[in-house]
Design brief:
This protein is an alpha/beta fold. Among the domains are: 452-612, 2-Layer Sandwich (Heat Shock Protein 90), CATH 3.30.565.10; 629-744, Response regulator (Rossmann fold). 63% of the residues lie in helices and 10% in strands. It is built from 26 helices and twelve strands. It has helices at residues 5-16, 22-31, 42-50, 54-70, 74-90, 94-111, 114-131, 134-151, 155-169, 173-188, 203-225, 234-238, 241-248, 252-272, 276-329, 333-411, 415-447, 459-476, 498-514, 576-586, 614-618, 638-649, 662-671, 688-698, 712-722, 734-742, and strands at 455-457, 480-485, 494-496, 520-530, 534-543, 591-596, 600-611, 629-634, 654-659, 676-679, 704-708, 726-729. The strands form two sheets. Strands 1, 2, 3, 4, 5, 6 and 7 form a seven-stranded mixed sheet that branches. Strands 9-8-10-11-12 form a five-stranded parallel sheet, sandwiched between helices. α9 (155-169) packs antiparallel against α10 (173-188), α9 (155-169) runs parallel beside α11 and α13 (241-248) runs antiparallel to α14 (252-272). Pfam families: HATPase_c, HisKA, Response_reg. This is histidine kinase. Its EC number is 2.7.13.3.
Amino acid sequence: MCFPKSNAVIVLFAFLFFNWHYINAQEKLVANDNTAACTFDSYKLDLLVKNDSLYKATILLNDAISFSKKYNLKTTLAKSYNALGNVLTKMSNFKKAESYLEKSLHIYDSLNNKKGQDLVLSGLINSYTQEKNYTKFDSIYPKAQLLSKSLNSEIYFINLENKVKRDYYNFNNKSLLEMSNMGLELLNNTDFSTLNISKEYHTENLKQNLIQSFKYYNALAQIKIDQTNPKNYNLLFSLSDEKLKAALNTDINSYRKLATFNYYKYLYYTYAKKDLDSANKYILKSDNYKYDALANIENKNNRNGDLVYKIIDAEQKLNLTKEIQKKEAKNSQTFLISTIIVSTLLLITLTIFYFYFKAKRNILLINDALKASNSKLIAIDKDRLEFFSILSHELRTPIYGISGLATLIDQESDDTKKQSYLDSLISSSNYLSILIDNILQANRLKFEKKNLRLKPGKMAKIVNHVMSTVAVAAKNKGLELKVHIDKSDDQEFILVDKVAFSQILINLAYNAIRYTKTGSITINVFEKKRDTKNITLRFEVKDTGIGIKEEHRSIVFSAFENKTFLNKNSSGSGLGLYIVKTLLKSHDSDIDFVSTPNEGTCFFFEITFTLATNEESQGIISVKPHRDMRILVVDDNKINLLITKKNIEKIEGYSCQTISNGKEAISLVKAKDFDLVLMDINMPDMDGYDVTKHIRMFNTTIPILALTALNSNEISLRAEASGIDQIITKPYIFEDFKAIITSYSGSNDNYCKIIDAEAI
């Protein structure tokens, strides 16, 4: 919905002082229940929803519901239920959304309020569309359209748009084409100024937005019917990105639609025109829209912050002006008038000169800024092309090695040579895993600080794991690996994020191996100081490699830039040291180095760890089962099933059954007595969330763990809502995997835990 600028200022001002005027708002609520106005501050609600502040919007609506119930305000209660249902739909909590919308509809039915019924039915249709619950959609859609048509309401066209979306989501291309054609014909023949508008739209904007939406889906329908016919793309290419962007209001979902819009242009040039250069152009444009959504949210929040500051500043200036006017009113009327006239003329003159010189200066500044920006963009584009060239080489090298070594292992009969090839295969696999993780990590750390997941562990075990990870890479170059760790109590544990800290040492070790031709790589761990609660350790990673010149110290830890002081034929993505420095910030530490060119380099840093208590240390011990434990593994990938099955069978007292289909998994859990389920998330017939929800309908106690390659932070909320008890992120360390599995061999009094392998 679009608001006039003046209304937007009033809305935000009311939001800032909402808590100060709560009592007055309550009195207004009582007085206005018999009116048509929404009395729980609908402007504030719209603002919160627009900014995705859905939690605050929910709190506001719950307060309105409680207050309406207390004073028996039925109209306001119905509006509150309806608004809360729409907010919950936006949060994808469809079951609760349907519940609140039905409560609202019941109240409106009892009041015989047709306009209210029209709004609620539209909300239900939208919820069923988002949920893809087509059975309920089809049952309510005719009733809703009949009511909207009798009221001559614009809701009729909004419901029709949801019908078009329903056909799009259900791949009903023939109906999609017919309904979108019908929508366009009705819109072109309807004067929106004659409609009984149910909400405060700009009717012309609403009409144009709907036309753009129907054209969008009509274009997709034509293409879906026959992607190879160039004529079917005519409507698609008649739509412009800018008009479509304006119609969609450029939120996250609309950016996805823009991505789809450009994706079908990619299909046009791929299948209809066979023009790969143009096809690549549009697939890149499609990807860019996906990333624009995040930037749009950040910019929106920044703009809101600036607006709040301007409102407060304007209020202060207004109060100051009023005080000055009161003092001047005491002076002579004649003197006051003459002063105002002279001041006004002087102010106008000064303002004219001020804006003249300011405009002239701004033009010069803008020209300089444009020149600087153009130079910077050229440099960025050059760096981007160089980075993707490096990245292509770095990815292809281990992939080629893995493919070639697998072939050699298959062809080789000598066991000694097979083992040598296998060691090299593991080394290439480890390097590829570290490279991909660095790329993903660099992207995440650009936007947020790493949250450490601290668990009890031993530093010696972590360092030895790092050494085993890089051992084959060092062996292949003929380098000696050395390690020194100061002795400590065998029963002493520290709280450490194993994955994050291992990533620091592995990156430093691989970096040392990469730039060392002969000699050795050494990892030292020294105890610097300790007290009853903390211990400070100093870490050193030394090599006998090419070294670093002092003049390059400032760019060593910068992503991509550190490649500039190396030879063109050097390997590496340029991300490792940047990742190390960024992760150390999360440990409240920093890294430095000493180096002599052609003799070697020593990177060093210090971290203070908290000593684990006895209770925390005991918590890492696995629980032995009292009986044989039966585990069901659900995954559509046969290789993943084989690996997981073999890992489970390594654990004493555990047996395993595998299944590759979600629906069959539900039947197996019903028919057999399993102790634990390992569930993949991405499966073709039913995803892991839906399978878990179905199992929870008849079995609420069996532990269900997600075994997935997805980032656990991104899926944690959906996993918790579906009934998943814990998340294990692939790839994982076997001992950590074993510790999680065996922790469920005792009583199943496990609260829902959203934890990944990083937390172990």
